[in-house]
Amino acid sequence: MRLTVSLPAHRFAPLDWAVRTVLEEVLGLPIKVECTDRPDIILSAEGREIRLHSCFPDLDAPREAWASQMPQIPLKVLERGNLPVLFGAPVITREETRTTCEVDIFGAIFFMLSRFEEVVLPDRDGHDRFPAAAALAGREGFLQRPIVDEYAALLFSLMQEHWPQMRRRVREGRTRISCDVDQPFDRVGRNPKALIRGLGGDLLRRKSPRTAARRALNFWTHGSGDHRHDPFYTFDWYMDVCEQNGHRAAFYFIPDHSGGAIDGDYDISDLRILRLMQSIHARGHEIGMHGSFNTYQDPGQIRHERTRLTEALARAGLEVEILGNRQHYLRWDSAQTPDHLEACGFAYDTSGAFPDRPGFRYGTSQPFAMWSWTKRAPLKLRQHPLVLMECSVLSPGYLGMGHGREATDLMQSLKRAALRHGGDFTLLWHNSHLLTKADRACFRSLVQT
């Protein structure tokens, strides 16, 4: 059975993308899409139909008026599934051959996946990032729910009521482990003042005499290329844990310093880095790019850094195509960064989380083809949404929850929510945030299958 999907002509392009993302990619259903003059979205087959209310978006309106299309808060809630209703009304009526849903399901899906609010709202933090506190999901309390996946599940349940023989694609969710290589080596080096500061942090803040001892030993031995005592050089242990649990991790390296010191203090061509990349590749893990601080709005710098990383890999004797990227500091401009990454040859990005809070920035744990606000059309570039960055929960600069039960419960609940819908639990854990037993125990518990 093939479903016919009729879309209103005046919002065809954005809805066609949302429909194909959900019905074809997520649910795996054969569909035929047609353009009509009717105002609603109609799914039909075998003399039955589902009529979906459609009111968002209106991209033909003047750009300066787009902010007026933001959902009105507080949001209403659909009792079925306890789903927040971004557009439309929380009403579903069922007749023998027709179901009418006044929830604008595909409008809400487009809103979340396209990051419409980030294009129209001016809110930015000190690093020019759109913060979770300004996002609708943050303000309305559903950031920790993959509501796009929940909307897809609701829609499929409505379809099964009319077409019980319909079967959706079953995708097995998985955990994706990744490491942003911001600081591969302890910055103490041979600087006695830096050593004293580091030891103070180990003993007073982290309460880890073991880390302090390792740091002191590393102070004397690092110059010989011996990294056994370097508290930041945790890569072998990191890969061991991933491999023990059947995971292939991705390691993203910073190729240049467009933002200066904020981009770390290593050179991508350093012999120690080349040896590290050789080790990662030999063990079957992925190497990708960690676009430096000022790349997010600079396609020339993105291209330059991808070239530098490729050249460094060649010097290491590795034939590796750079497919993936994550932006340093998760700096992102939804209006242009996706276009720049695609133009520079990347297959996917995985920057899709808010730095200040963990959760589902795009409302989904499923990979998807991104939307271009420049072309107002889909891109080939795919987003693998980041669900959890460890420092968003643990570090004082963000939620600052430490390693208590509350933090553990939050992180595990995000993992369950992602996997429940057959999505990916994409975890970013830095090599430099494995200094204590508590750090390592937490990482290991999240990596375990």
Distance between the termini: 36 Å
Low-confidence stretches: none
Helix count equals 14
* Rg result: 24 Å
Measured as a percent range, the helix fraction is: 25-40%
Largest sheet: 9 strands, mixed
Strand proportion, as a percent range, falls in 15-25%
Strand line-up of the largest beta sheet? 14-15-13-12-11-10-9-17-16
The count of β-strands is: 17
Average pLDDT taken over every residue? 93
SS-derived structural category = alpha/beta
- Rough outline: elongated
Short description:
The chain has helices at 12-26, 105-114, 116-120, 136-140, 147-162, 192-205, 209-221, 235-244, 271-282, 299-315, 337-343, 390-394, 405-420, 437-447; strands at 3-8, 31-36, 41-45, 48-52, 76-78, 83-85, 88-94, 98-103, 174-181, 250-253, 286-291, 324-327, 348-349, 368-372, 377-383, 388-389, 424-428.
Structure description:
The model has no long low-confidence stretch (mean pLDDT 93). The protein starts with a strand and ends with a helix. The protein has helices at 12-26, 105-114, 116-120, 136-140, 147-162, 192-205, 209-221, 235-244, 271-282, 299-315, 337-343, 390-394, 405-420, 437-447, and strands at 3-8, 31-36, 41-45, 48-52, 76-78, 83-85, 88-94, 98-103, 174-181, 250-253, 286-291, 324-327, 348-349, 368-372, 377-383, 388-389, 424-428. The chain is elongated. The strands form 3 sheets. The chain has a 9-stranded mixed beta sheet. A 6-stranded mixed beta sheet has the order 2-1-3-4-8-7, with helices on one face. A hairpin with a 4-residue loop joins strand 14 and strand 15 (377-383). The chain has 449 residues and is α/β, with parallel strands linked by helices. The longest helix is centred in the last third of the chain and has 17 residues, at 299-315. 35% of the residues lie in helices and 19% in strands.
